[in-house]
Amino acid sequence: MSKQTLEFEKPIVELEQKLDELRQQSEGRDIDLGREIRLMQEKIEAMRTQVYGNLSAWQRVQISRHTARPFFLDYVRMAFTDFIELKGDRLFGDDPSMPGGLATIDGVRCVVIGQQKGRDMKENLHRNFGSPHPEGYRKALRLMRMAEKFGFPFVALIDTPGAYPGIGAEERHIAEAIAVNIRDMMVLRTPVVSVVIGEGGSGGALGIGVADRVLMLENSYYSVISPEGCAAILWKHRKHAPEAAEALKLTAKDLQKMGLVDGVIPEPDGGAHVDPEKAASNLREALSRELKSLSKTPVEKLLAKRYEKFRAMGVFQE
């Protein structure tokens, strides 16, 4: 797979190419360019710190969509153990865009589900570009109820531009499937943690997003609409997506400040795709911490706090 370079990353990539040239000259011609190489490395690190320390909302959206970014099954492989995939909603069929099953994280047995994208056209067609059908949400609900029955905590990893809006999805009642999930997650009698690992788009994200703890990776976004969709409505053109991204306040930092998410999980400089193992380690630590904390809370208190948490959203005082 070719490396995707985002527009704001090009100055860093150019310096990295110059660094490679210096190394090749040093090795190929047996010339000592150690000083020049060190200076170039320092320059790259300084520019990397400057660029990634001052990212705009739109730039974070771009990173969240990076084709090399770890997806759900990558995190399952790196952060969880003993994963057993469970398929089908027992009503219509299986949805490959919403895989899930049993897994273990730091010794805690849990049920995990999430949206899965593809890295090439063939895989994206199989995974429906990470946009679940109704059967995906009904499978998620089946696994939630199984987690409740056996006393397992439930973990949801969100990464979708939105639920699939096609005719087939409408015929099978996509809106009803999402609504039922939101309703039933509110009263699920087991600890629930959701993490936005990439895109958190609209009801497609919220359909597995009602939780006791809602976390976000540093370069993910969570929004009622995509920046492009918002720009098309308000400015009548998708080119205004950067302005829309700023106005939507969809970044992890903005949402935490407003109290809509409970925590932000740091990513390596440059995004999770630069060092997937480190990103997975950070995710594992955060999930382990939250699950251990929630496991100490009695179920009735857990449900009361979950209710209060979501009822408080959107409340304002003059």
Radius of gyration: 21 Å
Under CATH at level 1, the class of the largest domain stands as: Alpha Beta
Main sheet summary: 8 strands, mixed
Quick check: average pLDDT?
A: 91
**Number of extended strands:** 8
Large-scale geometry: globular
Walkthrough of the structure:
This protein has helices spanning 10-28, 34-52, 57-64, 72-79, 121-127, 134-150, 167-171, 174-186, 202-206, 227-234, 241-248, 252-257, 276-295, 299-311, and strands at residues 81-85, 100-105, 108-114, 154-160, 192-201, 213-217, 221-223, 263-265. It has 318 residues and is an alpha/beta fold. The chain folds into two domains: 7-54; 59-311, 2-enoyl-CoA Hydratase, Chain A, domain 1 (Alpha-Beta Complex). Strands 1, 2, 3, 4, 5, 6, 7 and 8 form an eight-stranded mixed β-sheet that branches. Helix 9 links the parallel strand 5 (192-201) and strand 6 (213-217). The chain is globular. The termini are far apart. The mean pLDDT is 91.
Could you give the topology of this structure?
Elements: H1 10-28, H2 34-52, H3 57-64, H4 72-79, E1 81-85, E2 100-105, E3 108-114, H5 121-127, H6 134-150, E4 154-160, H7 167-171, H8 174-186, E5 192-201, H9 202-206, E6 213-217, E7 221-223, H10 227-234, H11 241-248, H12 252-257, E8 263-265, H13 276-295, H14 299-311
Parallel strand pairs: 3-4, 4-5, 5-6, 5-7, 6-8
Antiparallel strand pairs: 1-2, 2-3
